[in-house]
Amino acid sequence: IFRYKDPKTGKVKQRKESLAKFKDLDAYSIKDARKAHDKRSTQVAEFRIMDVLPQAVMTFSELTAWYLELPSIKKLASYPRIKCCLTNFNAVFGNRIVGSIKPLDLENYQESREQQGAALATIDLEVVIAGGMVRKAWDNDMIDGHAVRAFKKVKNKLKIGANARTRTLTIPEYMALVEVASEHIKALVITGYNTGMRKGELLNLEWSHIDRKSSMIRLPAELTKEKKPKLPLCWKETIQIV
């Protein structure tokens, strides 16, 4: 058992370790136990104790495996998107120690992804999701604050408002699209155009969201981007399609 100062909180913490983790030491020897304790005490005194804690060797791939199994993450409607973004991120940083990441590494990642043809919004989302995972781990004392600071210093590639829509689908375009669409796609096009519902809201629509008595669609908070219940405007044609 040894004590060390947590660099994140400044508080003194206590950690228990087995002698089995030390090479050439007898797990049942008091003498070897004292040797192990002296070694840790020296590392604490020289501020090298963080080098032997779990967070010092955790890779982004290992952290991702933990993060994607969290119930609070798995239940999100955006879970497939989160998983995809982390897969792209780990294609570069998967074997990298989390605590070793630097702002320059992330900036180089952004430039590399842009050269590959990825949209700026996609690049920003990948970095934001990876950063959210890192902050979650930090909040749960799994890593130190070095990686958190790296993500905080990186700026988005996409400027605010740069991806704003410049036009809307015209009625003739809408009618032409409906005319050539297959039946199941036609239903999605009509419902989406007339309600303004997003793709995720349309594809995850369930019978429990349909209020037949009031002829309304009631979207629950977990289905919407704003995380608030929504009542899309429903025209007669939309209700007939639904």
UniProtKB/TrEMBL annotation:
GO molecular function, one term: DNA binding
UniProt-listed GO biological process terms: DNA integration; DNA recombination
Ligase recorded as keyword: no
PROSITE patterns, alphabetized: TYR_RECOMBINASE (PS51898)
Keyword list, A-Z: DNA recombination
Gene3D superfamilies referenced in this protein's UniProt entry, alphabetically: Intergrase catalytic core (1.10.443.10)
Domain Tyr recombinase, residue spans: 164-242
Keyword Transmembrane helix: no
Protein name in the entry: Tyr recombinase domain-containing protein
Species this protein is from: marine sediment metagenome
